[in-house]
Every structure is written in C-alpha cells, then in structure tokens.
What does this fold into?
Amino acid sequence: MKEKIIALYIRLSVEDRDLDELKTASVSIQNQKVHLRNFLMCHPETASGEIREFIDDGYTGTNMDRPAFQEMMKLAREEQISCIVVKDFSRFGRNYLEVGNYLEQIFPLLGIRFISVDDGYDSKQNQGDVPGLDVVFKNIIHDYYSKELSVKEIQTKRNLSQKGLFLGAIPPFGYVRDPDNRHKLLVDPESAGTVKRVFAFALEGKNLSEIARVLNKEKVECPGQRLWRLGIRTKGIQEEEIQKMKWSADSVRNILKSPAVIGSITNHRVERKEMGRAGLKKVNTEEQIIVENMHEPIIEKKIYDQIQKNYIQRNQKMYIPGEKIKRHLFSGILKCGCCGKNMVQEGGANRKYLCKYSREDNDELHRTIYIEENVLQEAMADFILVGLKLKISQKTEEKKSSRENTGGKRKTPSQSFHSKKKMLSDIYEAYAEGKIDKDTFLRKKENIREMFETEDVEAETKTAVVRTDLENLLEEVQSTADDSWLTREVLKVFVKEIWIFPESEMKIIWKPEWALEGAGKDSIGKKEK
It folds into this structure.
C-alpha cells in the first residue's frame, strides 16, 4: 500500500519582508525548509511517507487563496496526505477564524495530523480535544498582527507619496525611470516630443479624435507600443498585437490630463477595499496626493492650465462618481470586424453602432463598419425566435428518442456516470487487495449508489425545466407585438459575441449550449436597410 504524503507547508508574504532583517531571515523560504526538515529528522516517527514541500512565496496569510495551499488541500481531500507540518501557525494563516476551522473541523474530518513546530502543537497529542486557549490566543494575535502590518504598509506608502516619490508600476508617457533611483522620473526624449505635439494640436483647436487620427496617419508610436519596446509591458503580448495598437481619443486625453507633464507626481490613486484583504478601488481626484516640481517638466504650467480650463472640460467624458454607468443593449457583445474592439452607440434621430477607434483610424474600410440600431435589433430578434423554436423541437425529439430506445432511461451515459463507475471499480479493487476494510467498502459503495440515483433525478428534472423555460420564453415573445422582449439579459443568455463587418454584415457567435445542430456554432446574416 502506497504511503501517504507528509506535507511541509511554507509561506512568506510581502508583509514579512517589511520586518527587520533578522526577523526576515528567520522566516525565509530556505530557513523554513531547513527548520522543518530538521524537525522530521529528530522525530522519525512523523516522517513515515513521501515528504513533499508546498511553497507560497509572496502570498498573504489573511486568506487561504494561495496556489500551493490549494494544491495541498486538493491532495488532502483525496486522502493522499497524512500529516501537515508548519513552522508556526502564522505560516499556515493569519485569520484565526479560518485557521481554527481547519484545526477543529476540516483536519479531524480528513484524518490529517497537524504539527506547528515552534508552537509545540501536535494534533495527535490532543485527539478528541479542541485546540487549547494558547493556540486560539496565538491565532488572534497573528490575525491582529497581519492587519497591523497592512496599516503600517499603507502609512509607509502615504509617507513616501507625500515626499513626491514615484511609486507607480508604469512611468507616464514621456518619461522613464531613473536607472539609479526607481522612485524618480527622467524625460524620455522620443516620447516627450510626441507629448509636445499633442499639446500643440490641442492649442490649435483639434479635437481628441482629430489628434489621434494625425498621429495614426504618421504612424507615431502609441503608449502601448512604447511600453512594449522598452520591455515594461510585454507579458502575454505578441508582436502582431503590438502592430495593431493605435492612438485613440482616450490615449490623447490621458496625456493632456496627466500632471506628470508639468513635473508633478500623483500617488494614492487606488486604495484597498478592506484592510488586510485583496482588492483595490479608485480614489477620487481630490483625495489623491499630488506633489509638484519633482522632475523635469515637458510642458509649461500655464499651457497645461490653459488646456485643462478651456479644452479638457469641453472634451471630458461625463461621469458622476458612484453613479452606475448605463450600458446599451449590445454593450460588450458587439465587436468591430476590423480591429476586434467593442463597438459604441452613437445618438441621434437614427441611432447606430460603430467602432470608436474608426474615427481615429485612417483606414477607409474601418469607417464603413457600422450598423443601425433598429436593423441590428430586428435581426437579432428574428434569429433568436427561430433558434428558440428549433431548440424546443430539438429537446422534444431528444426526449422522445431517448424513451423509445431506452425505455425512459437516459440513452448515453454522462461523463459523471463514467466517473462514478470508475470510483465503484476503484473501491472494489482496493477492498480486494486489502487496502480498505469491509465496512469502509460498503459505506463508500452506498454513497456512490446514492450519487447515481441523485444524478438520474437531477438530469430528468433539468431537461424538463429547460424545456419549460424555453416554452415560456417563446410564449412571451409571440405575445409581444414588438421587439421589447429582447432585453440585455435575454441576449446574454443566447449570444456570446456579434461581429459587424462592412455593409452591415454580421457574424453571430452563440453560447455553446445554444449552438444548434445543422446550423453550427456561427451564423452569418446580412440585413438590408
């Protein structure tokens, strides 16, 4: 019988690196490895099995969402781990409620021994008892300590921000990091020239799209391409994608609004949603920390102020903080067949959808990609109505055929069926080889039998529910005089994407579960105006 795994769990977080040098060394990844290995050597009775290390480097202890930890727990649930060893409770986790749940509920249920070396805790020595008061107290201290570190980290960053140090991950367009001081910016001669041109165009009265169009026509390197060429943002980006990047009204606006061009550093743009937890939220402009005269300016302040007063306000997007942005019916679904970007709605007497980047692009074909709203809505209503009828007919035929061929039982075993069948075979084999006793075999066999029965009932119920829901929706559609039934919610149920090409030709990519036999996954239709 294969021996189970002895898991050595090792963790070092960003917060730990903020500690003094001596403390950091004591909790380093290498020192934790040596410490735990030495413990096993001195206690050979704990090392009867394969020793495997699970390391989370750079992950907080305030939650359990860590890759190595999740991998270890997956093996634990599969009954492959017999013992978990950590340096101390804080390495396992700093949230005392979650740590307590693992010690008191999860590990005893899985039959896993838990050892915290420095805390002198061994669950085998406390079988049947909940962890003592000292364990609970230490976990509370670790939880508090983690939150204290978060407060310390925030205060440290705020102090650095108030000194005007650059703390961002990516330097603003027109600048690069000082190679001798990562918190200082230096003017980038190449992109700084583009910044000056953008401001000059704005002073001439050109709007955002016109400026972007000129830069694209001259093939001037855009911010995304610049970052890629400097090696700042390259992960997961192919060179073909870089070639397609273009200037847009948004990228022009960002340059005109950036205080960096007059030598100012802006920090505290985002903050944590909750202390000690992951997740960030944007900070209102008035609460951001801006320190002037921290590096060489590219634009004179009086010109910058003039642009902010007379130009940016006129070309600014209307947005009220805290107000939910309204989405149009096809928002996020409608794609430009030329560049793949999302298409936007344009108002007027006859509303239409077009690619916002087509205004800045000099490609005439790109500008021909648009579709009127009433044409698109009518086409999608027709497609979905036909699809509904076909799907209901398909479901009815499937059920009829299934009953005729199998006497009411499902014709084709599901993947889940095969999985449970293998489980049954595995436990029988384990019983035959003496790996499990008779009681365990019978108990697991009964559990699998119940799972079979549950799946049968759920599958039959699901088929009936789906068919009924489809019929109800079809009835609602047919009883409505116009296309008002076609809401964003209905659209997202059926459609993944809609691609628009020249002359209002469209390609519909249905959700996998709505891809109809005979029609395929994609449907192409052309609606005449």
About this structure: Residues 175-315 form a domain with the Hect, E3 ligase catalytic domain fold fold (CATH 3.90.1750.20).
